Amino acid sequence: MSCVLGGVIPLGLLFLVCGSQGYLLPNVTLLEELLSKYQHNESHSRVRRAIPREDKEEILMLHNKLRGQVQPQASNMEYMTWDDELEKSAAAWASQCIWEHGPTSLLVSIGQNLGAHWGRYRSPGFHVQSWYDEVKDYTYPYPSECNPWCPERCSGPMCTHYTQIVWATTNKIGCAVNTCQKMTVWGEVWENAVYFVCNYSPKGNWIGEAPYKNGRPCSECPPSYGGSCRNNLCYRAQVVRCDTKMKDRCKGSTCNRYQCPAGCLNHKAKIFGTLFYESSSSICRAAIHYGILDDKGGLVDITRNGKVPFFVKSERHGVQSLSKYKPSSSFMVSKVKVQDLDCYTTVAQLCPFEKPATHCPRIHCPAHCKDEPSYWAPVFGTNIYADTSSICKTAVHAGVISNESGGDVDVMPVDKKKTYVGSLRNGVQSESETSVPDHVIWSLLNTLFMNSCCLGFIAFAYSVKSRDRKMVGDLTRAQAYASTAKHVNIWALIVGILMTILLIIIPVLTFQIYR
Asked: What's the family (predicted)?
Protein backbone atom coordinates (compact mmCIF):
# COMPACT_ATOMS: atom_id res chain seq x y z
CA MET A 1 0.00 0.00 0.00
CA SER A 2 1.35 3.43 -0.86
CA CYS A 3 0.31 6.98 -0.27
CA VAL A 4 1.11 9.79 -2.73
CA LEU A 5 0.86 13.29 -1.37
CA GLY A 6 1.77 16.44 -3.27
CA GLY A 7 2.13 19.89 -1.74
CA VAL A 8 0.77 18.86 1.66
CA ILE A 9 2.20 20.01 4.97
CA PRO A 10 3.30 16.90 6.96
CA LEU A 11 1.01 16.95 9.97
CA GLY A 12 -0.93 14.66 12.22
CA LEU A 13 0.36 11.06 11.95
CA LEU A 14 2.54 9.44 14.59
CA PHE A 15 3.81 5.97 15.39
CA LEU A 16 5.48 4.65 18.52
CA VAL A 17 7.32 1.46 19.49
CA CYS A 18 8.98 0.38 22.74
CA GLY A 19 12.45 1.79 23.11
CA SER A 20 12.22 3.95 19.99
CA GLN A 21 11.49 7.52 19.09
CA GLY A 22 8.48 8.50 17.00
CA TYR A 23 8.38 10.44 13.78
CA LEU A 24 5.95 12.36 11.63
CA LEU A 25 4.37 11.05 8.45
CA PRO A 26 2.23 13.04 5.99
CA ASN A 27 -1.46 13.54 6.59
CA VAL A 28 -4.13 16.14 5.82
CA THR A 29 -6.93 17.51 7.92
CA LEU A 30 -10.49 16.71 6.91
CA LEU A 31 -11.88 16.64 10.40
CA GLU A 32 -15.53 16.23 9.48
CA GLU A 33 -14.90 13.06 7.51
CA LEU A 34 -12.84 11.56 10.33
CA LEU A 35 -15.40 12.33 13.00
CA SER A 36 -18.26 10.92 10.95
CA LYS A 37 -16.25 7.71 10.60
CA TYR A 38 -15.18 7.26 14.17
CA GLN A 39 -17.16 9.43 16.54
CA HIS A 40 -20.61 9.13 18.11
CA ASN A 41 -22.73 11.87 19.67
CA GLU A 42 -21.46 11.41 23.22
CA SER A 43 -19.62 14.31 24.79
CA HIS A 44 -17.16 12.12 26.68
CA SER A 45 -13.41 12.63 26.50
CA ARG A 46 -13.01 9.26 24.78
CA VAL A 47 -14.96 7.52 22.06
CA ARG A 48 -14.27 3.81 21.90
CA ARG A 49 -14.81 2.03 18.60
CA ALA A 50 -14.87 -1.75 18.28
CA ILE A 51 -12.81 -3.11 15.40
CA PRO A 52 -15.30 -4.19 12.71
CA ARG A 53 -14.87 -7.54 10.99
CA GLU A 54 -13.66 -5.95 7.74
CA ASP A 55 -10.87 -4.09 9.57
CA LYS A 56 -9.80 -7.25 11.40
CA GLU A 57 -9.58 -9.08 8.09
CA GLU A 58 -7.59 -6.25 6.53
CA ILE A 59 -5.14 -6.08 9.44
CA LEU A 60 -4.63 -9.84 9.56
CA MET A 61 -4.44 -10.33 5.79
CA LEU A 62 -1.92 -7.51 5.39
CA HIS A 63 0.28 -8.78 8.23
CA ASN A 64 0.44 -12.27 6.71
CA LYS A 65 0.98 -10.92 3.20
CA LEU A 66 3.88 -8.75 4.36
CA ARG A 67 5.37 -11.54 6.47
CA GLY A 68 5.29 -13.88 3.48
CA GLN A 69 7.17 -11.51 1.17
CA VAL A 70 10.18 -10.55 3.34
CA GLN A 71 13.59 -10.31 1.70
CA PRO A 72 15.79 -12.16 2.23
CA GLN A 73 13.28 -15.01 2.46
CA ALA A 74 12.33 -16.49 5.83
CA SER A 75 12.53 -20.23 6.55
CA ASN A 76 10.58 -20.14 9.83
CA MET A 77 7.99 -17.36 9.43
CA GLU A 78 4.75 -18.41 11.13
CA TYR A 79 1.21 -17.67 9.96
CA MET A 80 -0.47 -15.05 12.17
CA THR A 81 -3.99 -15.42 13.62
CA TRP A 82 -6.35 -13.02 15.39
CA ASP A 83 -6.52 -13.31 19.17
CA ASP A 84 -9.55 -11.97 21.05
CA GLU A 85 -7.67 -11.57 24.33
CA LEU A 86 -5.00 -9.46 22.66
CA GLU A 87 -7.76 -7.38 21.08
CA LYS A 88 -9.34 -6.83 24.51
CA SER A 89 -6.04 -5.76 26.05
CA ALA A 90 -5.38 -3.43 23.11
CA ALA A 91 -8.86 -1.91 23.48
CA ALA A 92 -8.36 -1.42 27.22
CA TRP A 93 -5.10 0.43 26.65
CA ALA A 94 -6.40 2.50 23.74
CA SER A 95 -9.29 3.67 25.92
CA GLN A 96 -6.80 5.26 28.34
CA CYS A 97 -5.68 7.74 25.66
CA ILE A 98 -2.11 7.67 27.01
CA TRP A 99 0.61 8.12 24.38
CA GLU A 100 3.03 5.53 25.66
CA HIS A 101 3.33 1.76 25.82
CA GLY A 102 1.39 -0.11 28.42
CA PRO A 103 0.23 -1.38 30.69
CA THR A 104 3.62 -2.19 32.19
CA SER A 105 2.41 -5.50 33.58
CA LEU A 106 1.68 -6.81 30.06
CA LEU A 107 4.75 -5.52 28.25
CA VAL A 108 6.92 -8.31 29.64
CA SER A 109 4.92 -10.86 27.64
CA ILE A 110 3.52 -9.03 24.60
CA GLY A 111 4.83 -6.87 21.79
CA GLN A 112 3.07 -3.62 20.97
CA ASN A 113 2.92 -1.19 18.06
CA LEU A 114 1.21 2.17 18.57
CA GLY A 115 0.00 4.71 16.07
CA ALA A 116 -1.94 7.96 16.28
CA HIS A 117 -3.19 10.45 13.75
CA TRP A 118 -5.72 13.19 13.28
CA GLY A 119 -7.26 14.56 10.13
CA ARG A 120 -8.90 12.59 7.39
CA TYR A 121 -9.77 8.92 7.71
CA ARG A 122 -6.95 6.39 7.55
CA SER A 123 -7.71 2.68 7.46
CA PRO A 124 -5.89 0.35 9.88
CA GLY A 125 -4.14 -1.11 6.85
CA PHE A 126 -2.54 2.27 6.18
CA HIS A 127 -0.94 2.22 9.64
CA VAL A 128 0.26 -1.37 9.23
CA GLN A 129 1.80 -0.63 5.83
CA SER A 130 3.52 2.46 7.23
CA TRP A 131 5.03 0.35 10.01
CA TYR A 132 6.27 -2.19 7.49
CA ASP A 133 7.73 0.51 5.23
CA GLU A 134 10.51 1.02 7.79
CA VAL A 135 12.10 -1.93 5.95
CA LYS A 136 13.78 0.59 3.66
CA ASP A 137 15.99 1.63 6.59
CA TYR A 138 16.63 -1.89 7.94
CA THR A 139 19.53 -4.21 7.09
CA TYR A 140 18.99 -7.90 7.82
CA PRO A 141 21.77 -9.50 9.93
CA TYR A 142 22.95 -12.77 8.36
CA PRO A 143 24.14 -15.63 10.64
CA SER A 144 27.79 -14.91 9.79
CA GLU A 145 27.36 -11.45 11.32
CA CYS A 146 25.90 -12.74 14.59
CA ASN A 147 28.72 -13.70 16.94
CA PRO A 148 26.76 -14.55 19.02
CA TRP A 149 24.62 -11.39 19.08
CA CYS A 150 23.29 -9.90 15.88
CA PRO A 151 24.03 -6.24 15.10
CA GLU A 152 21.13 -3.80 14.97
CA ARG A 153 21.38 -1.78 11.77
CA CYS A 154 18.69 0.80 11.20
CA SER A 155 19.57 3.85 9.11
CA GLY A 156 16.29 5.67 9.79
CA PRO A 157 14.54 7.07 12.87
CA MET A 158 13.32 3.57 13.82
CA CYS A 159 12.85 0.04 12.45
CA THR A 160 11.19 -1.70 15.39
CA HIS A 161 7.67 -1.43 13.96
CA TYR A 162 8.89 -3.42 10.97
CA THR A 163 10.80 -6.01 12.99
CA GLN A 164 7.80 -6.67 15.24
CA ILE A 165 5.57 -7.25 12.21
CA VAL A 166 8.04 -9.76 10.70
CA TRP A 167 9.18 -11.43 13.93
CA ALA A 168 8.94 -15.09 12.89
CA THR A 169 7.69 -16.60 16.16
CA THR A 170 5.01 -13.94 16.72
CA ASN A 171 1.86 -15.72 15.57
CA LYS A 172 -1.01 -13.90 17.31
CA ILE A 173 -2.31 -10.35 16.97
CA GLY A 174 -5.14 -8.26 18.37
CA CYS A 175 -5.75 -4.57 17.65
CA ALA A 176 -8.09 -1.76 18.68
CA VAL A 177 -8.94 1.78 17.59
CA ASN A 178 -10.10 4.57 19.89
CA THR A 179 -10.90 8.22 19.18
CA CYS A 180 -9.57 10.40 22.01
CA GLN A 181 -11.13 13.86 22.11
CA LYS A 182 -8.01 15.07 23.89
CA MET A 183 -4.67 13.21 24.03
CA THR A 184 -1.26 14.58 24.94
CA VAL A 185 1.26 13.49 22.31
CA TRP A 186 4.84 14.38 23.21
CA GLY A 187 3.89 17.57 25.00
CA GLU A 188 1.18 18.69 22.58
CA VAL A 189 -2.56 18.27 23.08
CA TRP A 190 -4.24 16.64 20.11
CA GLU A 191 -7.98 16.96 19.77
CA ASN A 192 -9.97 14.09 18.25
CA ALA A 193 -6.87 11.93 17.91
CA VAL A 194 -7.38 8.44 16.48
CA TYR A 195 -5.35 6.03 18.62
CA PHE A 196 -4.42 2.67 17.03
CA VAL A 197 -3.00 -0.12 19.22
CA CYS A 198 -1.81 -3.58 18.11
CA ASN A 199 -0.66 -6.19 20.62
CA TYR A 200 1.42 -9.20 19.57
CA SER A 201 2.21 -12.58 21.11
CA PRO A 202 4.71 -14.04 21.61
CA LYS A 203 6.55 -10.73 21.69
CA GLY A 204 9.38 -9.90 19.32
CA ASN A 205 12.13 -7.29 19.10
CA TRP A 206 14.55 -9.20 21.32
CA ILE A 207 17.86 -7.35 21.42
CA GLY A 208 20.68 -9.16 19.65
CA GLU A 209 18.44 -11.49 17.63
CA ALA A 210 17.44 -11.51 13.97
CA PRO A 211 13.68 -11.25 13.39
CA TYR A 212 13.65 -14.52 11.41
CA LYS A 213 15.88 -17.22 9.94
CA ASN A 214 16.96 -16.84 6.34
CA GLY A 215 16.32 -19.79 4.02
CA ARG A 216 13.83 -21.56 1.77
CA PRO A 217 10.26 -20.72 2.90
CA CYS A 218 8.82 -23.18 5.43
CA SER A 219 12.01 -25.28 5.51
CA GLU A 220 12.47 -24.70 9.27
CA CYS A 221 8.90 -24.60 10.57
CA PRO A 222 8.25 -25.84 14.13
CA PRO A 223 7.13 -29.51 14.23
CA SER A 224 3.72 -28.45 15.58
CA TYR A 225 2.83 -27.14 12.10
CA GLY A 226 2.91 -30.64 10.65
CA GLY A 227 4.91 -29.62 7.59
CA SER A 228 2.11 -27.42 6.23
CA CYS A 229 2.90 -24.19 4.38
CA ARG A 230 0.78 -21.35 2.97
CA ASN A 231 2.01 -18.26 1.11
CA ASN A 232 5.58 -18.84 2.37
CA LEU A 233 4.34 -19.06 5.98
CA CYS A 234 4.35 -22.00 8.39
CA TYR A 235 0.67 -22.83 8.45
CA ARG A 236 -0.98 -24.95 11.11
CA ALA A 237 -3.01 -27.64 9.37
CA GLN A 238 -5.76 -29.62 11.10
CA VAL A 239 -3.66 -30.00 14.23
CA VAL A 240 -5.45 -31.74 17.11
CA ARG A 241 -4.60 -32.75 20.67
CA CYS A 242 -4.57 -36.23 22.19
CA ASP A 243 -7.99 -35.66 23.77
CA THR A 244 -9.66 -34.07 20.71
CA LYS A 245 -12.89 -35.92 19.94
CA MET A 246 -14.04 -36.68 16.44
CA LYS A 247 -17.44 -35.03 17.00
CA ASP A 248 -15.79 -31.77 18.07
CA ARG A 249 -13.65 -31.35 14.94
CA CYS A 250 -15.21 -33.40 12.18
CA LYS A 251 -18.10 -31.25 10.93
CA GLY A 252 -19.29 -31.30 7.36
CA SER A 253 -16.60 -31.04 4.71
CA THR A 254 -13.90 -30.32 7.35
CA CYS A 255 -13.92 -34.02 8.24
CA ASN A 256 -10.75 -34.89 6.42
CA ARG A 257 -7.16 -34.99 7.68
CA TYR A 258 -5.68 -34.28 11.10
CA GLN A 259 -2.19 -33.95 12.56
CA CYS A 260 -1.77 -35.81 15.86
CA PRO A 261 0.97 -34.86 18.33
CA ALA A 262 3.41 -37.25 19.96
CA GLY A 263 2.71 -38.84 23.34
CA CYS A 264 -0.93 -39.95 22.91
CA LEU A 265 -0.29 -43.65 23.65
CA ASN A 266 -0.55 -43.28 27.43
CA HIS A 267 -3.03 -40.41 27.43
CA LYS A 268 -6.28 -40.89 29.36
CA ALA A 269 -8.58 -39.84 26.50
CA LYS A 270 -11.24 -42.51 25.89
CA ILE A 271 -12.15 -44.38 22.72
CA PHE A 272 -15.16 -46.62 22.08
CA GLY A 273 -15.25 -49.51 19.63
CA THR A 274 -13.07 -51.57 17.32
CA LEU A 275 -12.60 -50.85 13.61
CA PHE A 276 -15.61 -48.50 13.85
CA TYR A 277 -15.21 -45.89 16.59
CA GLU A 278 -17.94 -43.90 18.36
CA SER A 279 -17.94 -40.17 17.55
CA SER A 280 -16.96 -39.12 21.10
CA SER A 281 -13.69 -41.08 20.80
CA SER A 282 -10.27 -39.45 20.70
CA ILE A 283 -9.11 -39.13 17.08
CA CYS A 284 -5.44 -39.73 17.84
CA ARG A 285 -5.92 -42.61 20.29
CA ALA A 286 -8.27 -44.31 17.80
CA ALA A 287 -5.51 -44.04 15.17
CA ILE A 288 -3.01 -45.67 17.53
CA HIS A 289 -5.54 -48.39 18.50
CA TYR A 290 -6.15 -49.16 14.81
CA GLY A 291 -2.40 -49.32 14.13
CA ILE A 292 -2.09 -46.34 11.79
CA LEU A 293 0.03 -44.22 14.15
CA ASP A 294 2.44 -44.88 16.98
CA ASP A 295 3.37 -42.69 19.94
CA LYS A 296 5.32 -40.36 17.64
CA GLY A 297 2.09 -38.96 16.17
CA GLY A 298 1.45 -38.09 12.54
CA LEU A 299 -1.29 -37.60 9.96
CA VAL A 300 -4.57 -39.55 9.96
CA ASP A 301 -7.62 -39.47 7.68
CA ILE A 302 -11.14 -39.60 9.15
CA THR A 303 -14.23 -40.96 7.37
CA ARG A 304 -17.79 -40.79 8.69
CA ASN A 305 -19.50 -44.18 8.87
CA GLY A 306 -23.08 -43.33 9.90
CA LYS A 307 -24.87 -44.83 12.89
CA VAL A 308 -24.05 -48.31 14.18
CA PRO A 309 -26.07 -50.19 16.85
CA PHE A 310 -23.21 -50.82 19.33
CA PHE A 311 -19.44 -50.63 19.88
CA VAL A 312 -17.26 -53.49 21.18
CA LYS A 313 -14.18 -52.99 23.34
CA SER A 314 -10.72 -54.40 22.57
CA GLU A 315 -7.05 -53.87 23.34
CA ARG A 316 -4.77 -53.14 20.42
CA HIS A 317 -1.29 -51.65 20.11
CA GLY A 318 -1.22 -50.73 23.78
CA VAL A 319 -4.57 -48.88 23.76
CA GLN A 320 -7.70 -50.19 25.51
CA SER A 321 -11.00 -49.23 23.89
CA LEU A 322 -14.37 -49.36 25.67
CA SER A 323 -17.79 -50.77 24.79
CA LYS A 324 -20.97 -48.79 24.29
CA TYR A 325 -24.24 -50.64 23.71
CA LYS A 326 -26.45 -48.01 22.15
CA PRO A 327 -26.76 -46.64 18.59
CA SER A 328 -24.46 -43.74 17.84
CA SER A 329 -22.58 -42.05 15.00
CA SER A 330 -19.30 -43.69 14.07
CA PHE A 331 -16.13 -43.05 12.11
CA MET A 332 -13.19 -44.91 10.62
CA VAL A 333 -9.50 -43.99 10.49
CA SER A 334 -7.10 -44.60 7.61
CA LYS A 335 -3.46 -44.05 6.83
CA VAL A 336 -2.40 -41.00 4.83
CA LYS A 337 -0.55 -42.02 1.68
CA VAL A 338 2.02 -39.85 -0.08
CA GLN A 339 2.19 -39.81 -3.88
CA ASP A 340 4.54 -38.02 -6.30
CA LEU A 341 2.75 -36.23 -9.14
CA ASP A 342 3.61 -34.37 -12.31
CA CYS A 343 2.38 -30.86 -13.09
CA TYR A 344 -0.61 -32.03 -15.13
CA THR A 345 -2.61 -34.43 -12.94
CA THR A 346 -6.03 -33.20 -11.79
CA VAL A 347 -8.14 -34.17 -8.80
CA ALA A 348 -10.71 -35.67 -11.16
CA GLN A 349 -8.00 -38.00 -12.48
CA LEU A 350 -6.33 -38.82 -9.15
CA CYS A 351 -9.23 -39.21 -6.73
CA PRO A 352 -12.71 -38.42 -8.12
CA PHE A 353 -15.04 -37.20 -5.40
CA GLU A 354 -17.50 -39.80 -4.15
CA LYS A 355 -19.84 -39.44 -1.20
CA PRO A 356 -19.66 -39.78 1.77
CA ALA A 357 -15.95 -38.94 1.49
CA THR A 358 -12.93 -39.16 -0.75
CA HIS A 359 -9.43 -38.99 0.72
CA CYS A 360 -6.80 -37.93 -1.76
CA PRO A 361 -3.23 -38.88 -0.90
CA ARG A 362 -0.81 -36.24 0.32
CA ILE A 363 0.72 -35.04 -2.94
CA HIS A 364 4.36 -34.18 -3.53
CA CYS A 365 4.62 -31.67 -6.38
CA PRO A 366 7.72 -31.02 -8.48
CA ALA A 367 9.22 -27.57 -9.00
CA HIS A 368 8.38 -25.12 -11.82
CA CYS A 369 4.76 -26.15 -12.47
CA LYS A 370 3.92 -22.47 -12.92
CA ASP A 371 5.71 -22.51 -16.27
CA GLU A 372 3.48 -25.21 -17.79
CA PRO A 373 0.99 -23.92 -20.44
CA SER A 374 -2.66 -23.66 -19.49
CA TYR A 375 -3.86 -26.11 -22.12
CA TRP A 376 -1.79 -28.84 -20.41
CA ALA A 377 -2.04 -27.65 -16.81
CA PRO A 378 -5.17 -25.49 -16.41
CA VAL A 379 -6.28 -23.80 -13.19
CA PHE A 380 -9.95 -22.89 -12.71
CA GLY A 381 -11.04 -20.73 -9.76
CA THR A 382 -9.69 -18.85 -6.76
CA ASN A 383 -9.46 -20.29 -3.21
CA ILE A 384 -11.90 -23.01 -4.24
CA TYR A 385 -10.93 -24.72 -7.49
CA ALA A 386 -12.60 -26.98 -10.05
CA ASP A 387 -11.49 -30.62 -9.89
CA THR A 388 -10.38 -30.33 -13.53
CA SER A 389 -7.50 -28.07 -12.42
CA SER A 390 -3.87 -29.15 -12.31
CA ILE A 391 -3.23 -29.96 -8.64
CA CYS A 392 0.36 -28.76 -8.48
CA LYS A 393 -0.08 -25.61 -10.57
CA THR A 394 -3.16 -24.79 -8.47
CA ALA A 395 -1.03 -25.17 -5.32
CA VAL A 396 1.36 -22.53 -6.67
CA HIS A 397 -1.59 -20.23 -7.46
CA ALA A 398 -2.94 -20.69 -3.91
CA GLY A 399 0.50 -20.01 -2.39
CA VAL A 400 0.65 -23.41 -0.69
CA ILE A 401 3.97 -24.29 -2.33
CA SER A 402 6.77 -22.35 -3.98
CA ASN A 403 7.16 -22.63 -7.74
CA GLU A 404 10.93 -22.84 -7.37
CA SER A 405 10.96 -25.79 -4.97
CA GLY A 406 7.57 -27.56 -5.15
CA GLY A 407 6.43 -29.36 -2.00
CA ASP A 408 3.67 -31.29 -0.26
CA VAL A 409 -0.01 -30.53 -0.85
CA ASP A 410 -3.23 -31.73 0.79
CA VAL A 411 -6.50 -31.61 -1.18
CA MET A 412 -9.90 -31.40 0.53
CA PRO A 413 -13.14 -32.02 -1.40
CA VAL A 414 -15.95 -29.47 -1.06
CA ASP A 415 -19.36 -29.09 -2.67
CA LYS A 416 -19.40 -28.26 -6.37
CA LYS A 417 -19.78 -24.60 -7.34
CA LYS A 418 -21.76 -23.23 -10.27
CA THR A 419 -19.01 -20.82 -11.30
CA TYR A 420 -15.30 -20.44 -10.66
CA VAL A 421 -13.71 -16.98 -10.88
CA GLY A 422 -10.20 -16.57 -12.26
CA SER A 423 -7.43 -14.42 -10.77
CA LEU A 424 -3.70 -13.72 -11.00
CA ARG A 425 -1.82 -14.96 -7.93
CA ASN A 426 1.82 -15.88 -7.37
CA GLY A 427 2.53 -15.58 -11.08
CA VAL A 428 -0.25 -17.98 -12.12
CA GLN A 429 -3.34 -16.78 -14.01
CA SER A 430 -6.32 -18.99 -13.19
CA GLU A 431 -9.33 -19.14 -15.48
CA SER A 432 -13.03 -18.65 -14.91
CA GLU A 433 -15.41 -21.50 -15.58
CA THR A 434 -19.13 -22.14 -15.47
CA SER A 435 -20.53 -25.50 -14.49
CA VAL A 436 -22.94 -25.48 -17.49
CA PRO A 437 -21.07 -27.18 -20.38
CA ASP A 438 -21.27 -25.82 -23.92
CA HIS A 439 -23.09 -28.90 -25.21
CA VAL A 440 -25.89 -28.29 -22.69
CA ILE A 441 -26.33 -24.74 -23.95
CA TRP A 442 -26.45 -25.87 -27.57
CA SER A 443 -28.86 -28.66 -26.67
CA LEU A 444 -31.12 -26.07 -25.09
CA LEU A 445 -30.99 -23.86 -28.18
CA ASN A 446 -31.61 -26.81 -30.49
CA THR A 447 -34.57 -27.89 -28.36
CA LEU A 448 -36.06 -24.41 -28.46
CA PHE A 449 -35.54 -24.21 -32.21
CA MET A 450 -37.09 -27.62 -32.84
CA ASN A 451 -39.99 -26.86 -30.51
CA SER A 452 -40.63 -23.60 -32.33
CA CYS A 453 -40.60 -25.38 -35.70
CA CYS A 454 -42.81 -28.22 -34.45
CA LEU A 455 -45.33 -25.80 -32.98
CA GLY A 456 -45.41 -23.97 -36.30
CA PHE A 457 -46.16 -27.19 -38.19
CA ILE A 458 -48.88 -28.12 -35.68
CA ALA A 459 -50.49 -24.68 -36.04
CA PHE A 460 -50.39 -25.03 -39.85
CA ALA A 461 -52.05 -28.48 -39.63
CA TYR A 462 -54.88 -27.12 -37.49
CA SER A 463 -55.33 -24.22 -39.91
CA VAL A 464 -55.73 -26.69 -42.82
CA LYS A 465 -58.26 -28.72 -40.81
CA SER A 466 -60.19 -25.54 -39.99
CA ARG A 467 -60.33 -24.64 -43.70
CA ASP A 468 -61.53 -28.15 -44.65
CA ARG A 469 -64.29 -28.14 -41.99
CA LYS A 470 -65.39 -24.69 -43.13
CA MET A 471 -65.61 -25.84 -46.76
CA VAL A 472 -67.99 -28.70 -45.86
CA GLY A 473 -70.12 -26.45 -43.67
CA ASP A 474 -68.97 -27.72 -40.26
CA LEU A 475 -68.53 -24.24 -38.78
CA THR A 476 -68.40 -25.39 -35.13
CA ARG A 477 -65.40 -27.66 -35.62
CA ALA A 478 -63.82 -25.20 -38.06
CA GLN A 479 -63.94 -22.51 -35.37
CA ALA A 480 -62.47 -24.91 -32.78
CA TYR A 481 -59.57 -25.85 -35.10
CA ALA A 482 -58.95 -22.19 -35.88
CA SER A 483 -58.82 -21.33 -32.16
CA THR A 484 -56.35 -24.16 -31.51
CA ALA A 485 -54.18 -23.02 -34.43
CA LYS A 486 -54.18 -19.47 -33.02
CA HIS A 487 -53.03 -20.60 -29.56
CA VAL A 488 -50.33 -22.88 -30.97
CA ASN A 489 -49.08 -20.01 -33.14
CA ILE A 490 -48.84 -17.81 -30.04
CA TRP A 491 -46.75 -20.45 -28.24
CA ALA A 492 -44.55 -20.87 -31.32
CA LEU A 493 -44.00 -17.09 -31.32
CA ILE A 494 -43.09 -17.10 -27.60
CA VAL A 495 -40.60 -19.94 -28.07
CA GLY A 496 -39.09 -18.14 -31.05
CA ILE A 497 -38.66 -14.94 -29.02
CA LEU A 498 -37.02 -16.88 -26.17
CA MET A 499 -34.64 -18.54 -28.59
CA THR A 500 -33.70 -15.16 -30.08
CA ILE A 501 -33.07 -13.67 -26.62
CA LEU A 502 -30.90 -16.62 -25.62
CA LEU A 503 -28.93 -16.37 -28.85
CA ILE A 504 -28.11 -12.77 -27.88
CA ILE A 505 -27.61 -13.16 -24.12
CA ILE A 506 -25.57 -16.38 -23.97
CA PRO A 507 -22.58 -15.04 -25.97
CA VAL A 508 -22.60 -11.89 -23.80
CA LEU A 509 -22.65 -13.93 -20.58
CA THR A 510 -19.93 -16.20 -21.91
CA PHE A 511 -17.79 -13.15 -22.65
CA GLN A 512 -18.38 -11.76 -19.15
CA ILE A 513 -17.45 -15.07 -17.53
CA TYR A 514 -14.33 -15.77 -19.55
CA ARG A 515 -12.87 -12.34 -20.16
From this structure: Belongs to the CD225/Dispanin family. Belongs to the CRISP family.
* CA 143 – CA 34 distance, rounded (Å): 46
Q: Which CATH number is correct for 246-336, 1.10.390.10, 2.170.130.20, 2.60.120.10, 3.30.565.10? A: 2.170.130.20
- CATH number, domain 13-218, options 3.40.50.720, 3.40.33.10, 3.40.50.620, 3.30.70.600: 3.40.33.10
pLDDT band at 188 (very low <50, low <70, confident <90, very high): confident
CA proximity to 373, closest of 431, 421, 332, 330: 431
- Report which of residues 391 and 411 the model is more confident about: 391
SS3 track for 117-156: ECCCCCCHHHHHHHHHHHHHHECCCCHHHCCCCCCCCECC
380 contacts 388 by C-beta, under 8 angstroms:
yes
Q: Which tens digits make up the pLDDT trace of 142-175?
A: 999 998 899 999 999 999 999 999 999 999 999 9
Half-sphere exposure of 454 (CA within 13 A, CB side): 6
Separation between Cα atoms, residue 16 and residue 410, nearest integer Å: 41
Phi/psi at 396 (5° precision): -65, -45
Cβ proximity of 347 and 391 under 8 Å: yes
Q: What is the pTM of this model?
A: 0.49
Model confidence pLDDT, tens digit, residues 380-395? 988 788 889 999 999 8
